[in-house]
Write a structure and sequence with these properties.
The complex is a heterodimer of chains A (273) and B (337). With 273 residues, chain A is mainly alpha-helical. Chain A has one domain (23-270). Chain A has helices at residues 23-37, 42-63, 76-89, 95-104, 106-111, 117-145, 153-171, 173-182, 185-190, 195-200, 213-220, 223-236, 241-270. Classes of the chains: A mainly alpha (273), B alpha/beta (337).
Chain lengths: 273, 337
């Protein structure tokens, strides 16, 4: 560490001066850093990709023949593909990175800049959206490779990916809320528990009419049921406005709750109290 | 308070009309409570533009809480703080644009490269790409890590992390630089290098620097003025020389074995001695002319029956100031830390 730091006269500063970058620029900066870090953490991506592929292969392998009882020509692979997608995208977030930032003081460093506080959270969510979209593509690819048809065509396939990714995004509010509220990595890891009721108290394995009574009733109140119905409709039926509308409503409902919690936790974290 | 006498600082930049510039940091009755715990209990500070201000105190004295309020990370529970002309509570963004901060532990993201981190930092301060390029060029000597700029920060040594952290605090060319324990945990060579850089920033740019430290030597060598904080309150403020002069001209330190009370009594009436304090087996004798008082002190101690194990004459240090004001030694805490 030596030599002159800045080529300026004692009384004059260099002209470069800080200014507010603006919300969109802040969002781009925070999201850019988060997106860059995704491929640097393969340990977080590989399980997120392998688990849904594993479940897809095992579920279709073990239940395909039984599924013929649900009706002649019932395509169980098409039934399972949306489940695999939901497994791939639910609970994927940068919350563990956020909690590391909080613990090692980097979040404080960001807070001492004039960055928009909202972009500190939304920037991570933009990266999450990119991440879950990228995870959904190979899962859909596998489905197509094993013969699943998309009745709604290419546009339907794109909407399939978009809905899945929006669901993943809507769900991220929960781990972020926990990360911002607690600053505790163990608490963030335990947020994965939320995945189970959403992913399994629904039509993951059989249609709703085949569920036992209590599980059928529970599935009625689980937004994932409507998400799966909407995704399945794109594969098996074509364009079903009612099913798609309910899926979008389910995503929006969860998004309002989870992102609302995350924003409240962000306010608590940055209010300097 | 020993002294709060104004002292024109070395780095102060007078404004053209000859009036003093507004203070870089001004606090009045600054307080911060955490539940029932009062971490900062009414701090009044005035840091002049262009000076290096040393904020000295032991661990837990309230230094870090004060700096976190001044850097907009914590809202004061009471009182006011104005930094670079803006209130930290009501106009924090204006403060953020004008300050640079390096907190005690280098706050860096191990999964970014050094270059990525500095560029991101620059963008968050609204700098354009070519402005960031210019700042990176200017800071390259400070960062001084060569090719490592394109390696992940997780692979950096402690010294490299500190330098990068300081560069991140300077990327937007701030008016006021806050350094929280900038040399804590560094080896003596790295510590000297940081001191050199702090001086250079102050003299070359007139940058105001507010640094907290628990190292006496650091405050003594580096700071134009020093504020000493203990238990959440400022107990003394002034230039290092002013503070030391307030303790006494010279100090004779006697480490003895035997009756300390008798030894203290034996020193009564010796010409030139203005005070004697006993701390365990150590007598601290304040004298107006130390060399002249040394022999009479040695004779008096020998005659009163104690064994003198060590007898030294020295100038007062900031540690002596701290001892007189608080009854505890800062140095002992520093060594234990």
């Amino acid at each position: 560490m030596a030599a002159t730091i800045l080529p300026t006269a004692p009384t004059g500063r260099v002209e470069i001066r800080a200014r507010k970058a603006g919300f969109l620029a802040d969002l781009r900066s925070i999201a850019g850093r988060a997106v860059r870090s995704i491929p640097r953490e393969p340990e977080a991506i590989v399980p997120a990709l392998l688990i849904p592929l594993f479940f897809f292969v095992v579920n279709t392998g073990s239940l395909q023949d039984v599924a013929q009882n649900f009706g002649p020509g019932f395509d169980y692979k098409a039934f399972q593909l949306p489940v695999a997608i939901v497994f791939a995208v639910t609970g994927i977030s940068r919350a563990s990175t956020l909690v590391t930032d909080i613990q090692n003081g980097y979040f404080d460093r960001l807070q001492m800049t004039p960055v928009s506080r909202l972009s500190l959270l939304l920037g991570l969510m933009v990266a999450d959206f990119v991440n879950v979209l990228a995870l959904s593509i190979p899962v859909l690819g596998l489905g197509l490779a094993v013969g699943v048809d998309v009745e709604s065509g290419v546009l339907g396939a794109l909407l399939f990916l978009l809905l899945a990714s929006l669901w993943g995004l809507a769900f991220t509010g929960f781990p972020y809320a926990i990360a911002l509220k607690t600053g505790n990595p163990a608490a963030v890891n335990s947020s994965f528990l939320l995945f189970f009721p959403f992913a399994f108290l629904t039509t993951s394995f059989v249609p709703q009419e085949a569920l036992t009574s209590w599980l059928g009733t529970t599935a009625t109140y689980n937004p994932v049921t409507y998400l799966l119905d909407g995704l399945r409709s794109l594969l098996s039926e074509g364009w079903d406005a009612a099913a798609l509308g309910k899926a979008i409503a389910a995503i929006a409902g969860i998004g309002v709750v989870s992102i609302g919690l995350a924003l409240a936790a962000l306010r608590g974290r940055v209010d300097r109290g | 308070m020993v002294t709060t006498a104004p002292h024109p600082s070395v780095g102060s930049q007078p404004v053209p009309d000859g009036t003093a510039p507004p203070p870089a940091v001004l606090t009045k009755g600054l307080e911060r409570r955490f539940g029932d715990v009062v971490a900062v209990a009414g701090v009044d500070l005035e840091v002049r533009t262009g000076e290096i201000y040393g904020f000295l105190g032991p661990n837990g004295a309230g230094k870090s809480t004060t700096i976190r309020m001044l850097c907009t990370l914590l809202t004061p529970s009471a009182g006011t703080a104005v930094v670079a002309g803006h209130d930290v509570a009501t106009d924090p963004d204006a403060v953020r644009l004008r300050i640079g901060v390096a907190l005690q532990d280098a706050a860096l993201d191990p999964k970014q490269t050094g270059r990525e981190l500095l560029r991101l930092q620059g963008r968050l301060y609204g700098l354009r790409s070519r402005e960031i390029d210019a700042r990176l060029e200017s800071l390259s000597d400070l960062v001084d890590i060569g090719d490592a700029m394109d390696r992940f920060i997780g692979t950096y040594s402690g010294g490299m992390r500190r330098r990068l952290d300081l560069a991140a605090a300077l990327i937007h060319n701030p008016e006021v630089l806050f350094l929280d324990e900038p040399t804590s945990g560094l080896d003596p060579e790295s510590r000297s290098a940081v001191w050199e850089e702090v001086r250079r920033l102050n003299t070359a740019l007139g940058m105001t620097i507010f640094l907290t430290t628990q190292y006496l030597e650091e405050a003594d060598v580096l700071a134009d003025r020093v504020g000493i904080i203990a238990r959440g309150r400022i107990v003394a403020e002034g230039t290092p020389d002013e503070l030391k002069r307030a303790v006494g001209t010279d100090l004779i330190i006697a480490r003895i074995a035997g009756d300390a009370g008798a030894a203290r009594k034996a020193l009564d009436g010796i010409d030139g001695i203005v005070g004697v304090e006993v701390h365990g087996d150590e007598l601290t004798v304040s004298a107006t002319a130390g060399p002249a008082a040394l022999s009479p002190v040695a004779v008096a101690l020998a005659q009163c029956g104690v064994v003198v194990e060590e007898l030294t004459l020295r100038r007062p240090t900031l540690d002596d100031v701290f001892l007189e004001l608080t009854g505890g030694r800062l140095q002992e805490r520093e060594e234990a830390a």
